[in-house]
User: Fold this.
Amino acid sequence: MEFIFGFPIWELKKTDKFNRKKIEQEIYKAKEEDTEKKDEGIRSTRGGYQSDLSFPPSKFKETLKYICGQLEGPDGLRFPHSIEAAWVNINQEGNYNMPHNHGNFDGFAGVLFVTDAPGLHILNPSVGALYCDIKKSPEGNAGEIILFPKSLLHWVEPSKSEKDRITFAFNVHVPDLYKAKLEAFAASNEKSDSK
Assistant:
Protein backbone atom coordinates (compact mmCIF):
# COMPACT_ATOMS: atom_id res chain seq x y z
CA MET A 1 0.00 0.00 0.00
CA GLU A 2 1.20 3.47 -0.78
CA PHE A 3 -0.22 6.94 -0.80
CA ILE A 4 -0.57 8.41 -4.29
CA PHE A 5 -2.17 11.81 -4.80
CA GLY A 6 -2.78 11.79 -1.02
CA PHE A 7 -4.95 8.67 -1.27
CA PRO A 8 -4.20 5.07 -0.26
CA ILE A 9 -3.74 2.76 -3.25
CA TRP A 10 -3.00 -0.94 -2.93
CA GLU A 11 -1.23 -2.92 -5.63
CA LEU A 12 -1.40 -6.57 -4.65
CA LYS A 13 0.96 -8.88 -6.51
CA LYS A 14 -0.09 -12.23 -7.95
CA THR A 15 0.17 -15.21 -5.61
CA ASP A 16 0.34 -18.94 -6.31
CA LYS A 17 -3.40 -19.12 -5.45
CA PHE A 18 -4.20 -17.41 -8.78
CA ASN A 19 -5.77 -20.02 -11.09
CA ARG A 20 -6.18 -18.11 -14.33
CA LYS A 21 -7.65 -21.07 -16.21
CA LYS A 22 -10.46 -21.65 -13.68
CA ILE A 23 -11.20 -17.93 -13.35
CA GLU A 24 -11.38 -17.49 -17.13
CA GLN A 25 -13.66 -20.53 -17.40
CA GLU A 26 -16.17 -19.17 -14.90
CA ILE A 27 -16.08 -15.71 -16.50
CA TYR A 28 -16.72 -17.03 -20.02
CA LYS A 29 -19.45 -19.33 -18.70
CA ALA A 30 -21.19 -16.39 -16.99
CA LYS A 31 -20.89 -14.35 -20.19
CA GLU A 32 -22.41 -17.19 -22.20
CA GLU A 33 -25.36 -17.37 -19.78
CA ASP A 34 -25.87 -13.59 -19.87
CA THR A 35 -28.53 -13.10 -22.54
CA GLU A 36 -29.83 -9.70 -21.37
CA LYS A 37 -29.36 -6.79 -23.78
CA LYS A 38 -26.98 -4.14 -22.40
CA ASP A 39 -27.62 -0.40 -22.52
CA GLU A 40 -24.22 1.04 -23.51
CA GLY A 41 -25.30 4.51 -22.36
CA ILE A 42 -25.12 3.59 -18.67
CA ARG A 43 -21.92 1.55 -18.83
CA SER A 44 -18.34 2.71 -19.16
CA THR A 45 -17.40 0.05 -21.69
CA ARG A 46 -17.33 0.91 -25.37
CA GLY A 47 -17.43 -2.07 -27.72
CA GLY A 48 -16.58 -4.66 -25.09
CA TYR A 49 -18.61 -6.85 -22.77
CA GLN A 50 -19.54 -5.74 -19.25
CA SER A 51 -21.66 -8.01 -17.06
CA ASP A 52 -24.46 -6.84 -14.80
CA LEU A 53 -23.84 -6.07 -11.15
CA SER A 54 -26.74 -8.40 -10.36
CA PHE A 55 -24.85 -11.59 -11.24
CA PRO A 56 -24.99 -13.92 -8.23
CA PRO A 57 -21.64 -14.38 -6.46
CA SER A 58 -21.99 -18.15 -6.95
CA LYS A 59 -21.09 -17.58 -10.64
CA PHE A 60 -17.64 -16.33 -9.60
CA LYS A 61 -16.60 -18.60 -6.72
CA GLU A 62 -12.96 -19.06 -7.82
CA THR A 63 -12.56 -15.37 -8.70
CA LEU A 64 -14.01 -14.07 -5.42
CA LYS A 65 -12.06 -16.66 -3.40
CA TYR A 66 -8.82 -15.33 -4.89
CA ILE A 67 -9.79 -11.67 -4.41
CA CYS A 68 -10.93 -12.18 -0.81
CA GLY A 69 -7.73 -14.11 -0.04
CA GLN A 70 -5.68 -11.18 -1.36
CA LEU A 71 -7.73 -8.56 0.51
CA GLU A 72 -7.34 -10.56 3.74
CA GLY A 73 -3.65 -11.32 3.14
CA PRO A 74 -0.63 -9.64 4.75
CA ASP A 75 -0.50 -6.83 2.17
CA GLY A 76 -4.27 -6.44 2.00
CA LEU A 77 -6.78 -4.35 3.91
CA ARG A 78 -6.24 -4.11 7.66
CA PHE A 79 -9.75 -2.94 8.52
CA PRO A 80 -13.33 -4.28 8.22
CA HIS A 81 -14.60 -4.35 4.64
CA SER A 82 -16.86 -6.28 2.27
CA ILE A 83 -17.30 -6.58 -1.48
CA GLU A 84 -20.57 -4.84 -2.35
CA ALA A 85 -20.66 -5.17 -6.15
CA ALA A 86 -18.68 -6.97 -8.84
CA TRP A 87 -18.69 -7.28 -12.62
CA VAL A 88 -16.65 -8.58 -15.55
CA ASN A 89 -15.07 -6.56 -18.37
CA ILE A 90 -13.94 -8.30 -21.56
CA ASN A 91 -12.40 -5.98 -24.12
CA GLN A 92 -11.24 -7.05 -27.55
CA GLU A 93 -8.88 -5.09 -29.80
CA GLY A 94 -10.03 -1.46 -29.98
CA ASN A 95 -12.51 -1.74 -27.05
CA TYR A 96 -12.11 0.58 -24.08
CA ASN A 97 -13.75 2.03 -20.95
CA MET A 98 -14.66 5.72 -20.84
CA PRO A 99 -13.60 7.97 -17.93
CA HIS A 100 -15.80 7.26 -14.92
CA ASN A 101 -15.78 6.76 -11.17
CA HIS A 102 -17.69 4.44 -8.87
CA GLY A 103 -19.34 7.05 -6.65
CA ASN A 104 -18.39 9.03 -3.57
CA PHE A 105 -15.42 8.30 -1.35
CA ASP A 106 -17.22 5.74 0.79
CA GLY A 107 -15.02 2.81 -0.13
CA PHE A 108 -12.67 1.50 -2.77
CA ALA A 109 -12.81 0.34 -6.38
CA GLY A 110 -10.83 -2.76 -7.20
CA VAL A 111 -9.65 -4.49 -10.34
CA LEU A 112 -8.34 -8.03 -10.70
CA PHE A 113 -6.35 -8.32 -13.92
CA VAL A 114 -7.37 -11.78 -15.14
CA THR A 115 -5.23 -11.53 -18.26
CA ASP A 116 -2.34 -9.17 -18.87
CA ALA A 117 -4.44 -6.03 -19.20
CA PRO A 118 -2.43 -2.81 -19.48
CA GLY A 119 -4.26 0.44 -20.15
CA LEU A 120 -5.90 1.41 -16.83
CA HIS A 121 -5.27 5.04 -15.85
CA ILE A 122 -6.28 6.69 -12.56
CA LEU A 123 -6.41 10.48 -12.70
CA ASN A 124 -4.85 12.63 -10.01
CA PRO A 125 -7.69 14.81 -8.64
CA SER A 126 -5.15 17.63 -8.21
CA VAL A 127 -4.18 17.53 -11.86
CA GLY A 128 -3.92 21.33 -12.02
CA ALA A 129 -1.23 21.44 -9.32
CA LEU A 130 2.37 22.12 -10.33
CA TYR A 131 4.95 19.35 -10.16
CA CYS A 132 2.59 16.46 -9.62
CA ASP A 133 1.99 13.19 -11.39
CA ILE A 134 -1.04 13.46 -13.64
CA LYS A 135 -2.08 9.83 -13.41
CA LYS A 136 -1.26 6.41 -12.01
CA SER A 137 -1.06 3.64 -14.61
CA PRO A 138 -0.50 0.15 -13.19
CA GLU A 139 1.15 -2.49 -15.37
CA GLY A 140 -1.95 -4.69 -15.26
CA ASN A 141 -0.22 -8.07 -15.06
CA ALA A 142 -2.43 -11.17 -14.79
CA GLY A 143 -3.17 -12.07 -11.16
CA GLU A 144 -2.51 -8.59 -9.77
CA ILE A 145 -5.13 -6.49 -8.01
CA ILE A 146 -5.29 -2.72 -7.62
CA LEU A 147 -7.51 -0.91 -5.11
CA PHE A 148 -8.11 2.84 -5.11
CA PRO A 149 -10.76 5.25 -3.79
CA LYS A 150 -14.07 4.84 -5.66
CA SER A 151 -14.29 8.58 -6.26
CA LEU A 152 -11.14 8.78 -8.42
CA LEU A 153 -11.77 9.24 -12.12
CA HIS A 154 -10.29 6.38 -14.15
CA TRP A 155 -10.50 4.87 -17.64
CA VAL A 156 -9.08 2.10 -19.80
CA GLU A 157 -7.45 2.94 -23.12
CA PRO A 158 -8.36 0.97 -26.27
CA SER A 159 -6.96 -2.54 -26.22
CA LYS A 160 -4.07 -3.15 -28.58
CA SER A 161 -4.17 -6.92 -28.14
CA GLU A 162 -5.72 -9.44 -30.47
CA LYS A 163 -6.54 -11.53 -27.38
CA ASP A 164 -9.33 -10.73 -24.93
CA ARG A 165 -8.34 -8.29 -22.18
CA ILE A 166 -10.23 -9.55 -19.12
CA THR A 167 -10.65 -7.78 -15.80
CA PHE A 168 -12.91 -8.40 -12.83
CA ALA A 169 -13.97 -5.12 -11.23
CA PHE A 170 -15.47 -4.75 -7.77
CA ASN A 171 -16.40 -2.17 -5.15
CA VAL A 172 -15.33 -2.55 -1.52
CA HIS A 173 -17.57 -1.17 1.22
CA VAL A 174 -15.77 0.16 4.30
CA PRO A 175 -18.05 0.77 7.32
CA ASP A 176 -15.58 3.06 9.15
CA LEU A 177 -13.65 5.16 6.64
CA TYR A 178 -11.89 7.22 9.29
CA LYS A 179 -10.43 4.06 10.86
CA ALA A 180 -9.53 2.74 7.40
CA LYS A 181 -7.59 5.92 6.59
CA LEU A 182 -5.70 5.72 9.90
CA GLU A 183 -4.87 2.05 9.30
CA ALA A 184 -3.68 2.81 5.77
CA PHE A 185 -1.49 5.65 7.01
CA ALA A 186 -0.02 3.44 9.76
CA ALA A 187 0.68 0.66 7.24
CA SER A 188 2.45 3.06 4.87
CA ASN A 189 4.61 4.36 7.74
CA GLU A 190 5.53 0.79 8.74
CA LYS A 191 6.57 0.08 5.16
CA SER A 192 8.74 3.20 4.87
CA ASP A 193 10.31 2.56 8.31
CA SER A 194 11.37 -0.95 7.25
CA LYS A 195 13.35 0.38 4.24
In short: Residues 2-34+44-193 form a domain with the Jelly Rolls fold (CATH 2.60.120.620). The radius of gyration is 16 Å. The mean pLDDT is 87. The chain has one domain: 2-34+44-193.
